[in-house]
Write a structure and sequence with these properties.
This protein has about 300 residues and is an alpha/beta fold. Helix content is about 30%, strand content about 25%. Strand 10 and strand 11 form a beta hairpin. The structure holds S-adenosylmethionine.
Length: about 300
């Protein structure tokens, strides 16, 4: 049974079989598999950020002390190592399969210009491949490029029984430094995913990742984005001493997490040249069954297009 790590708080921290209702709920639950303790109560889409309670507002306002520059530089330098160690500890057990992207890709599949058209996809920051393998199983006429910072994560992808070099190419890459076009022909990708990846990158470097993806996307191609939203429960429960900058925090294991506002995301994508198709908050309330606690989760979901 996989254990939930204190601090990492992805909506999709694992349930063993990809339980669809497994958001993490708080430090008091560290060590418990999420699917054992929490369930989603409702979900809705919003155009405005979640309003904070007076206590939450006071907590965020009181937390102004930033991690030192020296430590921040060390975290940047060791970012790859910290993610690699994350996968050493958790192997393939932490994140669960992404059904949201499967639904999104269904829409994409329907847009084939002709029935036999092969779609080329890119999973940027693929982790152990929770997004690509469900897709590869469902649609035989796709080719997927999958890349990640962590060599260990890439190795897990390659060891997956569903990995087939004729339909998939996994490779190690820092999206902010290594040209994707070394592995992927320019303007060849129909759709790329960025699922809980950009939040792990320093806000000053996020644009580099988006530009890199832009170069390999076909005109008309889309980026599907999902990540932590502003005022998510995970943001509120960082202890003081974890703040790196505005809406940016470090976890105990050295991995970092940014919490996106719609406005920030829109500016980031449009500055690179993308058009916004969708950009909305997804709000979920989840209940910790054991403790009877209700926690608000906020994610930001977007779809951005490279113009024709
Ligand atoms: C929270 S995980 C999400 C993994 C996967 N997208 C999923 O949904 O299961 C974040 C991933 O981003 C990767 N990552 C972080 N910074 C990166 C960078 N600069 N270039 C490529 N991948 C990066 C990490 O190695 C990690 O696998």
């Amino acid at each position: 049974m996989p254990l939930r790590m204190e601090g990492i708080d992805s909506e999709d921290a694992c349930g063993p079989q990809g339980d669809s209702a497994s958001p993490s709920t708080g430090t008091q639950l560290a060590g418990l598999a999420d699917s054992e303790v929490s369930e989603a109560v409702f979900q809705r889409k919003e155009h405005c950020a979640r309003a904070l309670s007076p206590e939450e507002r006071a907590k965020l306002k009181g937390d102004q002390c930033l991690v030192s520059d020296f430590k921040q530089q060390k975290l940047e330098k060791e970012a790859q190592r910290n993610w690699d160690l994350f996968y050493k500890r958790n192997s393939t057990n932490f994140f669960k399969d992404r059904h949201w992207t499967t639904r999104e890709f269904e829409e994409l599949q329907a847009c084939r210009e002709f029935e036999a058209q092969k779609l080329i996809l890119l999973e940027a920051g693929c982790g152990v491949g929770n997004c690509i393998f469900p897709l590869l199983e469902e649609d035989l006429n796709i080719f997927v490029y999958a890349c990640d910072f962590s060599p260990r994560a890439v190795e897990f992808v390659k060891q997956n029984p569903l990995y087939n070099a004729e339909r998939c190419e996994a490779f190690q890459c820092d999206l902010t430094k290594d040209e994707l076009s070394k592995n992927i022909p320019l303007e060849s990708v129909n759709a790329a995913t960025l699922i809980f990846v950009l939040s792990a990158i320093h806000p000053d470097r996020m644009r580099l990742a988006l530009e890199n993806i832009y170069r390999v996307l076909k005109p008309g191609g889309t980026v599907l984005f999902r990540d932590y939203g502003l005022h998510d429960h995970a943001m509120l429960r960082f202890k003081s001493g974890s703040k790196l900058g505005e809406n940016f925090y470090v976890r105990q294991d050295g991995t970092r997490s940014f919490f996106f506002s719609k406005e920030f995301l829109e500016d980031l994508f449009t500055a690179v040249g993308y058009e916004t198709l969708v950009n909305e908050y997804v709000l979920r309330e989840t209940v910790n069954k054991r403790e009877g606690l209700c926690v608000p989760r906020v994610f930001l979901q977007g779809k951005f297009k490279k113009p024709l």
